[in-house]
Every structure is written in C-alpha cells, then in structure tokens.
Task: structure prediction
Amino acid sequence: MDITKMTAAQRAELKAQLEAEERAEKQKREEDIAAYKNGVDEFCRTGFSRLEELSRQMRQEKDRIFAEAEVLIQMKDDLFKTKTDRHSNSFTSSDSKITVTLGNRTNDGWDDTVNAGVDKVKTFIRSLARDADSAALTEMVMNLLSRDKKGNLKASRVLQLREIARKSGYPELIEATDIIQAAYRPVDTCQFVSVQYKDEQGVKRTLPLSLAAMEKEA
Result:
C-alpha cells in the first residue's frame, strides 16, 4: 500500500481504522489484565479456604496423636515402673513396618554465666606451656568453643569439652567446663511428629507431613 497515492479521504479512513484497532487492542489488554487480577483473587481466596481447613485438620490430628501417645507413655511407666522423658518418644508396630516418633524440638540456650565459664577456659588455655601436647589441647578446646551463626555454643560440643577436661585432669579446666554445663538452658521450639514406614518392597520411607516435604505427583 503506497500511502502517497491515497486521497485525503482514504488516508483519513485508514487513520481512523488504525486508531480503532489500537483502541481495541488496548481494551483487550485491559480486559486481560482485569481477568488475570480476578483470577489471582479467586486463586488466593479459594486456596486459602482449602488450606485453612487442611491446617485445622492437621492441628486436630496432631493434638489427637499427642493425646493418644500420652496415654501409652503413662501405661508404659505404670507397667514398667519407669519415668519416660517426654522430649522424644518412638512407637513401633509389632511387624516393625511403622514407627511413629513424636516429642519436642529444642534449641540450645544458655544463661549469662556461660560467658564466665568460657572466659575461664580461655584463661586456662592461655596459661599452658606451648609444647606439642598443649598446642593440640588448645586447638581442640577452641574448636569446641566455636559458636554458630547466632552466636550460641553447641551443647553437643560442650559435652565433648567436658569429657576432654575430665581426661586432661586439669582442675581449672574441669571447673570451667562445669560452669558452662550448669549454664545450659535448652529452649523448646515446637512439637513434632514423624512417621517412617516400609513400603510394599520393604524400602524404609518417611511419610510427608508438611506441604514442603510432599513431592508433586507426575
């Protein structure tokens, strides 16, 4: 199409046609955007409704599992004259195919006296003569006193440190590690339930109990 050969009326008609098409495209885009936003709203509302109900059911089932486990724990304590630690307990079916474990997850925590114990350890380490044996002890102790990203000591490492102190026979080091151990204040973070089972092929698997743990079906 050679626009230079068109009459004024033809050019005006073409311009009007192009403008109409542009308006139609703009209108369609606006309608598509509105449809997308409506779809997002519907997705969020209906998805929330379903997941809220799922969350409620999971909460109820968790409470039920813990209540039933408490009955079994009490029965065991009565039968065998024991006092079960509620931190973590496992129950396994008679055919060994299903194991349910539940309890409380904890984070390591310490009161402010832990710093006094750490300082005493470091003071003692600095007082050692720098022979091969003391250098090795220093390295082990300082590694065990290293803190995590949150600045906390690891309780498992403190236990190792106490064992080293006992074996070393140094009273100052033993006293310092006792101070650190006495400062331990674990903090419960949440209750957990985990289930392991053997599938039809005898392969041990973990039952996914969170949305994040569930694999999408093919």
User: Anything to note?
Assistant: The first strand starts at residue 88 and ends at 92. Strands lie at 88-92, 98-107, 187-198, 204-206. DSSP finds five helices and four strands in the chain. The mean pLDDT is 92.
